[in-house]
Amino acid sequence: MGAPCSRTWRELLLLPGTFIPRCSVCYVSQRRPRAGASERQRVPAWGMPARMCTKILAREQSQRSFAETLSGRGRCQLSPAEICAKTDAGRGSHTWICTKMLSRGSSQTIFTGRGRCQLSPAEICAKTDSGAGKGRGICTSTLPEGGGRQGIRAPRDKPPWRILFFGTDDFALESLRMLNECRRKSNELIEALEVVTLPSALPKGLPVRNYAIQSQLPLYEWPAVAPSTWFDVGVVVSFGRLLSEELILKFPYGVLNVHPSYLPRWRGPAPIIHTVLHGDTVTGVTIIQIRPKRFDVGPIIMQEEFPVPSRCTAKELEGILCKKGAEMVISVLKNLPRCLENKREQSKDGVTFAPKLSPVISCVRWEEQTPTQIMQLERAIGASLPLQTLWMGTVVKLLDFVDVPDIPNLAVHQVTPGAVRYHRQTKTLLVCCKDGWVGVRTVVLKKKLSAADFYNGYLHPWFQQTAQAPLETCRFHTLRLAPKVKKSSKKQEGVHL
């Protein structure tokens, strides 16, 4: 629209060749402009209580029905307060715009849309005397062009849901797979499922991305996000990006997050690793509602506690918890409104954090770490980050850690931490550490070597005599890695399509 004209809305629409938009919501004044009114007095609802007509018009509707809607006969006129009651309590499942009424000389600004701000119906009510019609404002609902599914709709109070899924890795894949299976079996729980994932430089790609392509699910690459006005609820599993408040508020039921710990213990991106690393005997899965600006602080919707299996690795525990988390998401979706009503805030006691681990933690500190700590470290990170140490100035990787059985004449007294012995009966390298010994069966030094190969090549008395290596150097030394300096980078927020 350009400058205001002297014609009424009805007259404009009934002109030959008038463009009728695919979806529109009109201004409806409390009374018609009086005869002979000036242009700015003909601006809809000028100085009148905020009223609007909520009927959405499809492409095939005639000019006549469109005009009837504009005149108020197509559907009853509603105030912002009534809009709140009939939609989603003002949370904003679609974009609402309140055009602030300015002085009489600013009618062109109002008409062209400059100076507008996006507000939910609840905010409109607050700014216009609780929607009673005394405020100076015009309320409309704007719809993106070109998308049939982007229209205004009232949020559902029961399934089937339309879900936007955010995820990346194998842990998230299990939830996505179970959601998609529910969608394919029947439409009783899930009507539609679309996916947002992160860009990846990996040749094989991210698991969630590969599955979405294979299953022909609509896929978006962050920061591009699907039109969230169409979805009922979002589900985030192992995504690693903060969602903006604007994006979260687009979902009538908010955004759910599957977190693999018994919150508030182990908030952060690596809860499973820290569970194993610290020797926790119990863990859990928590479904929370996401809040903006901070990770893992939202109210708890569902929570279950599980024992940690003995000698369980982080990879094995992830396989257990990802299935539990997927089952819990399905359970929440079956009773979503009731679950949200019964949500509770997290306790402020017992809060611990699980930050990402750097390669520095993979360096075994023989003088400081006990056998139990080393074994827990290997079970926590060994699958993705093998433990490292120094052998005669060369970095080596240690694989296949085992507990050391009770061996006679094997003491730690007067033995330097890092000293290596070969046990022929078990074909294991025994490495001295603080308060004990740990067993290693595979060493990577230029190539992968068994314990027997390492002994024959580097520990046999013949090698030590030939190499003339001092006895002090023939042991494992702690590798000192400089921590990486974290670059400050602003993460991109989602962009709505």
UniProtKB/TrEMBL annotation:
- Look up the domain of life of the source: Eukaryota
Q: What is this protein called?
A: Methionyl-tRNA formyltransferase, mitochondrial
Q: Which residues form the Formyl transferase N-terminal domain?
A: 232-332
Q: Catalyses which reaction?
A: L-methionyl-tRNA(fMet) + (6R)-10-formyltetrahydrofolate = N-formyl-L-methionyl-tRNA(fMet) + (6S)-5,6,7,8-tetrahydrofolate + H(+)
List, alphabetically, the CDD domains matched: FMT_core_Met-tRNA-FMT_N
Tell me which InterPro entries the record gives: Fmt, Formyl_trans_C, Formyl_transf_N, Formyl_transf_N_sf, Met-tRNA-FMT_N
**Role, per record:** Methionyl-tRNA formyltransferase that formylates methionyl-tRNA in mitochondria and is crucial for translation initiation.
Broad class of where this protein is predominantly found: mitochondrion
Q: Which SUPFAM superfamilies match?
A: Formyltransferase
Q: Per the database entry, which stretches of residues form a coiled coil?
A: none
